Amino acid sequence: MLRIVKIDDINDSRISLYKDLRFTPKTHQDNKLFIAEGRRLVRKLLNSDILIYSIFATEDFFSENQYLISNRIEENTGLYSAEKKIMEQIVGFRLHTGVMAMAYQPADVRVSDMKGLIVATNGINNAENIGSIIRNMIGFGLENIIVDGKSASPYLRRAVRVSMGSVFFSNVCHAENLENEIIYLKKKGYKIVSIEITNNSKLLNAFKFDKKSLIIFGSEDYGIEKEILEISDVVIKIPISNKIDSLNVSSSSAIVFYQLSKQLN
Q1: CA-to-CA distance for 146 and 244, rounded, in angstroms?
Q2: Among 14, 38, 74, 178, who pairs with 148 as Cys (CB 3.0-4.6 Å)?
Q3: Lowest mean pLDDT among 4-8, 74-78, 165-169
Q4: Domains: count for the chain
Q5: What CATH number has the domain bearing residue 61?
Q6: Which of 161, 44, 31, 172 is nearest to 91 (CA)?
Q7: In this structure, what DSSP letter does residue 153 have?
Q8: Residue 147 in contact with residue 133, Cβ under 8 Å?
Q9: DSSP helix/strand/coil, 146
């Protein structure tokens, strides 16, 4: 039997960590917590190995998923229920399903422990782009990602939501200095492939990927940093119409991963 606490007061201290979630609260970052939002996403979280801090949902979600929840939670996992309109007042925005959960960010995977293909982001500060890249990555069979210090964390609420829970099954490393990780991987025999439009870029459809490749994507505003390009083994670009300057970085990642999967699978 699940021990569910009914919440009637929007100022109840037991759900203080769910208060005003329009932006990621500092307390979440300090405690390495993240939010999963929506029925499908919370079910994916329950089916992962990630440690769950609490679940905040309408009563029907607990009834429908009693067996799954009871087999996944710890003794001290908070289970809170409220009407959807009260939940919306607490979190500060409209909820589609009235289901949320809070979980602990998994420990970073060291780059030295990553095997095979690796993705890296350089200065991508849009959380939704990060989430989309991870969804594309998992969709095409890649699991490893290095997120540099200038990129948004994959565990921000919008990144988790757009990834559709793919981040739960990713090997993530937050790296303050991406150059150091690149140098390490080069010594380990990795080929460093930057996705960028330059005068010397090779075309994606004419490029052969190595099974030990680090594939780097940069921000839409500034692209990949010059220092990163200089230590890359190759820079490639996606052939596109001259009517546009570039593609969205998440769209670019899907095209690159598709081409990669065709070659290596």
Answers
A1: 29
A2: 178
A3: 74-78
A4: 2
A5: 3.30.1330.30
A6: 161
A7: P
A8: no
A9: strand
Specify the long-range contacts of residues 107-111, CB closer than 8 Å, at least 24 apart: 108/172, 108/173, 108/174, 109/144, 109/171, 109/172, 109/173, 110/173, 111/146, 111/173, 111/175, 111/181, 111/184, 111/185
Question: Residue 1: pLDDT above 80?
Answer: no
Phi-psi label, residue 79: left if phi above 0, alpha if psi -120 to 50, beta otherwise: beta
Residues 118 and 100 in one domain: no
30 — pLDDT class (breaks 50, 70, 90): confident
Whether residue 155 contacts residue 165, with contact meaning beta carbons closer than 8 Å, is answered with: no
| Residues in Cβ contact with 177 at an 8 Å cutoff, skipping those fewer than 6 apart | 148, 149
The amino acid sitting at 207 is: F
| 63 and 120 co-located in one domain | no
Sequence-ordered list of residues with C-beta below 8 angstroms from that of 253, at least 6 positions apart, any chain: 119, 132, 133, 136, 137, 195, 217
Give mean pLDDT, residues 92-119.
Answer: 94
Whether residues 250 and 148 fall in one domain: yes
User: Treating both helix axes as pointing N-terminal to C-terminal, what angle do 127-139 and 249-264 enclose, rounded to 10 degrees?
Assistant: 20
Confidence of residue 29 (pLDDT cuts 50, 70, 90): confident
Domain boundary among 80, 104, 128: 104
User: What pLDDT band is residue 215 in, cutting at 50, 70 and 90?
Assistant: very high
| pTM, to two decimals | 0.93
Question: What are the φ/ψ torsions at residue 35 (nearest 5 degrees)?
Answer: -105, 135
Q: Are residues 116 and 240 in the same domain?
A: yes
Q: How far is CA 243 from CA 65, 237, 239, 240, 246, in A?
A: 50, 16, 12, 8, 9
pLDDT at residue 104 tops 80: yes
Q: Where does a domain end: 62, 77, 104?
A: 104
**What was the pLDDT predicted at 146?**
98
Residue 27's domain comprises 5-104
Q: For residue 265, is pLDDT > 80?
A: no
